[in-house]
Amino acid sequence: MKDNSKKDTVSASRDFLKINVDIYVFREHKFYVSYCPSLDISTSGTSKEDAIENFRERFEIYVETCLEKGTLWEDLKRHGWSVTKRNVTPPPFNVLVQKREVSDLLGGPLDYPKIRTPFRITAV
Is 40 left (phi over 0), alpha (psi -120 to 50) or beta? Predict the structure, then answer.
């Protein structure tokens, strides 16, 4: 399976951190689940919108906590992101699908909508 879309991205300025990540939203029983394979973060909600909003809140807490601890770049690397002085890029899609949790999710037909989610987080 090949993903030709633009990559998740992270860019920083003096005052804020701008991060774009892709999430997949799917229904599981009575709930909707939002999942970000490049960070292995997921949340759920009673509606698609609720799942996305819950993901947004969870992601912001993740980034803020990492920034406060000074571990954001190390954590991104741990998840397979490439971090250099000029670029921060997620692992390629073909690498992500080798992770068990991603391959289990994508094992069936990929009819989950992929949503590019931009975040603008104030630098700590």
Answer: left
